[in-house]
Amino acid sequence: MAAELATQGIRCNAVLPGLTESPPVLSMGNERRNALCASIPIGRMATTREIAEVVAFLCSPESSYVVGAAWVVAGGKQ
């Protein structure tokens, strides 16, 4: 899809967020949430702003040559 739409000037990319501070995650018990954070190399979950900044970059002219990419935004956890 990305290659086909690129010929029309449309860039398709994907953002794959890891554990993010969101209502479902924040409603988990502390023990479960702490265990999940401990499994992330950076040691914490992402903020929604951090995920949004990646999306904003991909929508900006600075990423004009980025097409068909999957950006893992997961604090080093693959």
UniProtKB/TrEMBL annotation:
Enzyme class: oxidoreductase
Keywords: NAD, Oxidoreductase
Protein name, entry field: Dehydrogenase/reductase SDR family member 6
Origin superkingdom: Eukaryota
Taxonomic classification: Eukaryota, Metazoa, Ecdysozoa, Arthropoda, Chelicerata
Pfam families reported for this sequence: adh_short_C2
Keyword set includes NAD: yes
Protein's pathway: Siderophore biosynthesis; Amino-acid metabolism
Catalytic activity: (R)-3-hydroxybutanoate + NAD(+) = acetoacetate + NADH + H(+)
Listed EC numbers: 1.1.1.104, 1.1.1.30
GO molecular function, one term: 4-oxoproline reductase activity
InterPro entries: NAD(P)-bd_dom_sf (IPR036291), SDR_DHRS6-like (IPR051122), SDR_fam (IPR002347)
Family: Belongs to the short-chain dehydrogenases/reductases (SDR) family.
